[in-house]
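Build the 3D complex.
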Amino acid sequence: MPDDQSSPASPRVVVTLPAALVNLFPGSVRRVEVSATTVGDVIDALDSRWPGMRDRICDSTPGIRRHINVFVEGERATLQTRLAPGAEVMVMTAISGG
Amino acid sequence: MAKKVFILVGTKKGAFIIESDAERRSWKLRGPFCETWPMNHVIADPVTGTIYGGGGNEWFGPAIWKSTDVGATWTHSSEGLAYQAGEAPIKAVWSVAPAAGSLYAGVEPAGLFRSDDGGQSWRHVAGLRDHPSRPHWQPGGGGLILHSLVPHPSDQSQLWVGISSAGVFHTADGGESWEARNRGTRADFMPEGQKYPESGQCVHCLVMAPGMSDRLYQQNHCGMYRSRDGGRHWDSIEAGLPSTFGFPAAVHPRDPATLYLLPLNGDTAGRYVPDGRAAVWRTRDSGDKWEALREGLPQQNAFFGVLRQAMATDRLEPAGVYFGTNTGTLFASADEGDSWHGIAQYLPAIFSVETLVVEA
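Done.
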């Protein structure tokens, strides 16, 4: 699993990304380990690794997009949600479209 | 030299490219592209051949897609394509237009963005949303969308835009300031005495005649119009047409007096082709007289509409004319509209049709 060395002082967390998002960024992967203390840090790390990914997950309100859900240990999260070492962060597409 | 023509089709489920030689008798379809995102407008820069697609995905938001190899590979970006925090975020890109090496993009909620690096990054042309009428802009049935972008062919400081339910606006200073240009167009949905406001008209499609930057045409929610002075005044050209309602308009590539429209039966009547019989309507005299072009089009039980960006011409001789239906059929004429053939069917709902002609 790829990992991120950008913030070695922060806890390591495991992030799972939806296939529809990974398909938009050649070279990206479904599971990645990053250093992050909040969900916002996770987004920063993802955008650093795959430029533009922030805009696909977040909008300018600022916040997580309406039809994207981020779960931390099974609970719906916001950008401010804090992460424990080893936390499982899941980015998921919501039911949407037609 | 032999030429190839590409029809660029934006649909509810991705972009498609349909190509032929200059004869335009047989067609080959490729797609869907852009990860099946809803693609509101797919265009090509006629100078570079680069294809750009504007769209928006319910999950992932707005983006401009780009292909420099006629659709073989695509990238996407929305860097800078955002309003300030606290404003309603951008849902989708609705229109894209090249202009003297730059690109413009119109978005929903209505606003204008510009790129000077080939669509990699964007900056907000904030002057449009500073127009005093903006607090009164209300979304129409398709949303509060900036769907028409008409750059001046030689003066980079001039640009016209069309916003549904807000009207036509023009800038002469590169987007710093804007003037509403709707005089003479009706707002039938307003009470008596308020049917000719300065802005708030529901323009559906705005186009410029070739070689005549002051000659504009528009299909409006409430009528069809021609302007001879860059939109300062508009004259109705709806006499002789089967309705006052429709979405697309397309100009001839060389003749400023030839315009194609596709009237529908009315805004509260289903928005189908009238009487279930499909026709493109053509004028050769800037809208004084109209003729229905029906050969090859279904003449019974046709209940489709054609959306605001879903009709186009090519620059071949004779000019090709194309339109795509909201039921996923693409029709083509290789003889300026005299006769028609279906060249693709069973596509997703078609949102836009544009063309690219290149040397083979």
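The mean pLDDT of chain B is 97.
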